[in-house]
Each structure stands twice: as C-alpha cells, then as structure tokens.
Write a structure and sequence with these properties.
The chain is mainly beta and 122 residues long. It contains no helices and eleven strands. It has strands at 3-7, 10-13, 18-25, 33-39, 46-52, 58-60, 68-73, 78-83, 92-99, 111-112, 116-121. The strands form two sheets. Strands 2, 4, 5, 6, 9, 10 and 11 form a seven-stranded mixed beta sheet that branches. Strands 1-3-8-7 form a four-stranded antiparallel beta sheet, with no helix packed on it. The mean pLDDT is 96.
Amino acid sequence: QVQLVESGGGLVQAGGSLRLSCAASGRSFSRATMAWFRQAPGKEREFVAAMYWSDSITFYADSVKGRFTISRDNAKNTVYLQMNSLKPEDTAVYYCAAKFRRAVPEGVYDYWGQGTQVTVSS
C-alpha cells in the first residue's frame, strides 16, 4: 500500500539550509495533495507547506514563506522541502503527508511518513 519514507533531517546552525526528501510509493500520486507538517516538543502539529502533485500549485504557512520551498520529482516519486535561512524555532520533527484528492491544504491527510528530526542550533 502507500508508503512515505522521509530522509534528510539533521543538525544545522542558524542561517543554514537542509533539504528533506519524501519518497512516495504504492500507487500513482498524479491526483495527490502532498504536504509537510512539523511538531516541536510539547507543541501541537503545525502545517508547513503543501502542493498539488499534478500542476505543482503550492501553499505555505506564513512562518516559512520565502524561506522554504516544496517541490517534486515526478520520475523519482519524491517530494522535497528545501529549507533555507533556518531559525532555532524551526526545530521540530518534520512529517510528510499525502491525500489522493485536490483539497484544502491544511485539511485531513490519509497517509503519513515516520518523521525526520530537524534541529537548528543558535
């Protein structure tokens, strides 16, 4: 069935960059909405970015707009989150999510990855 496997997390200094990857498999994602969420210790899960796979229309939380970019590689069935100008408040576990419909970006998602830790030091 559908699987989302994340990679690319790590420890970086404030102002640095990371690129997260989400390898998607199990079915065609041509009609999918893909998203990244994050959750810091003791805080609720937060929407970060989303994209309609078919036409690459993107959506971003205000807190990351201008710093983060969501994209995909159709041949590799992979979604990316390029994170630049990282801040300590970006520290969180980042999750990839998918739903097989074009819908509200912050709405319900049916499939989730395992999460990857991003730590930004000051």
